């Protein structure tokens, strides 16, 4: 009897312990399988008041206050910057990264979680960048955006073709923390809870500036020579920026360098002033030093351009920065709203 009492007591402790470890926030009716399937959504915690404010945002009218007190406190997609291929042009995209941080974008969502770099090299295999994008989507429930400069712009479009299956239908997931490929070519979609291949994912926003030219003659970009200007359906909104005259990108101010969709993607072409330089067009960190400039950047709307503020430092590259920042804010809001709606739908499911 004494032994039975001891055994019963131990079993009782295990039972109580098991009950105590059940997360109190789990809605009734949500199974363990659901918890595993929707781990990314459930691990993204958002204050209810912030969630309401995010849902109330107009993605086309995001203010500085919205960025700093609302969006920055909610789900935030990664930004994958892709710099050009000639040293030290990577410093230009680092300048752009500092611009984003100065405008209120969380630095942790720009830096690589492994080595802390602020941009990716166009010499990283496009399959690796594609695998990283899929890993972020699976683990964080937000789809990264891509911003590419020069050869980095070519690489961004190449990633879209990787997602389209143009070069193969099996792309390994790439873990950015360990900086290594995982032994799988599928992820668990954070919104459906079901396995899906990396190929076929769709990115919300991609933009490229000064892409093309001699870089297409490099062996790693030969496959893009006939593809660069044709954007597949693996992106929702794409913007291609060209300079007024760009000898390096072989852009001579005519429609032959325009990007166009081969399907349903929304594709814009924006012509920047001829005074902008191919090498330094993304150098924008200086713009955040002026309060007047920051206010102008946040008030900018495509197609409605008031005069750029002058008298408080350089205004170089302000038009490019303003247009990119507008679309980053827009898709940041859309991604955050998508996550919150999915979290609420998951709760209702219970």
Low-confidence segments: 1-35
- How many strands appear in the DSSP assignment? 11
Name the CATH homologous superfamily: Alpha/Beta hydrolase fold, catalytic domain
Strand content: 5-15%
Which CATH architecture would you pick?
3-Layer(aba) Sandwich
SS content category: alpha/beta
Helix content: 25-40%
The run of helices and strands is HHHHHEHHEHEEEEEEEEEHH
Q: Strand count, sense and closure of the main sheet?
A: 5 strands, parallel
Helix tally equals 10
Number of domains: 1
Please give the radius of gyration in angstroms: 23 Å
Overall pLDDT level: 87
Overall shape? globular
Which fold name corresponds to the CATH topology?
Answer: Rossmann fold
Look at the structure and give the CATH class.
Alpha Beta
Whole-Å distance between the termini?
43 Å
| Strand order across the largest sheet | 1-2-7-9-11
What's the short version?
The protein has 350 residues and is of the alpha/beta class.
Overview of this protein structure:
- It is a single chain.
- The chain is α/β, with parallel strands linked by helices.
- The chain has a single domain, classed as Alpha/Beta hydrolase fold, catalytic domain (Rossmann fold).
- About 35% of the residues lie in helices and about 15% in strands.
- The chain contains ten helices and eleven strands.
- A five-stranded parallel beta sheet has the order 1-2-7-9-11, sandwiched between helices.
- About 40% of the residues are buried.
- The N terminus is likely disordered.
């Amino acid at each position: 009897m004494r032994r039975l009492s001891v055994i019963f007591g131990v079993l009782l402790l295990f039972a109580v312990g098991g009950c105590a470890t059940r997360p109190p926030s789990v809605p009734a009716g949500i199974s363990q399988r659901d918890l595993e399937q929707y781990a990314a959504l459930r691990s993204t915690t958002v204050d209810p008041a912030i969630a309401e404010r995010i849902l109330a945002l107009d993605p086309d009218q995001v203010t500085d206050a919205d960025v700093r007190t609302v969006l920055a406190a909610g789900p935030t997609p990664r930004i994958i910057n892709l710099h050009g291929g000639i040293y030290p042009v990577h410093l230009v995209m680092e300048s752009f990264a500092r611009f984003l941080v100065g405008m209120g974008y969380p630095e942790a969502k720009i830096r690589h979680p492994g080595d802390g770099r602020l941009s990716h090299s166009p010499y990283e295999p496009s399959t690796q960048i594609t695998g990283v994008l899929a890993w972020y989507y699976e683990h964080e429930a937000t789809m990264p955006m891509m911003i590419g400069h020069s050869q980095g712009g070519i690489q961004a479009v190449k990633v879209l073709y990787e997602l389209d299956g143009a070069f193969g239908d099996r792309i390994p997931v790439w873990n950015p923390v360990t900086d290594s490929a995982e032994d799988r070519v599928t992820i668990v979609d954070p919104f459906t809870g079901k396995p899906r291949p990396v190929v076929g994912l769709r990115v919300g926003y991609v933009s490229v500036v000064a892409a093309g030219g001699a870089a297409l003659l490099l062996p790693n970009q030969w496959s893009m020579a006939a593809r660069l200007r044709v954007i597949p359906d693996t992106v929702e909104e794409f913007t291609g920026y060209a300079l007024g005259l760009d000898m390096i990108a072989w852009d001579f101010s005519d429609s032959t360098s325009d990007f166009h969709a081969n399907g349903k993607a929304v594709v814009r072409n924006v012509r920047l002033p001829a005074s902008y330089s191919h090498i330094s067009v993304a150098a924008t960190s200086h713009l955040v030093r002026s309060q007047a400039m920051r206010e102008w950047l946040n008030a900018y709307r495509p197609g409605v351009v008031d005069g750029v503020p002058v008298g408080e430092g350089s205004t170089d590259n302000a038009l490019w920065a303003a247009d990119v920042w507008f679309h980053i804010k827009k898709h940041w809001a859309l991604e955050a709203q998508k996550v919150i709606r999915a979290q609420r739908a998951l709760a209702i499911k219970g």
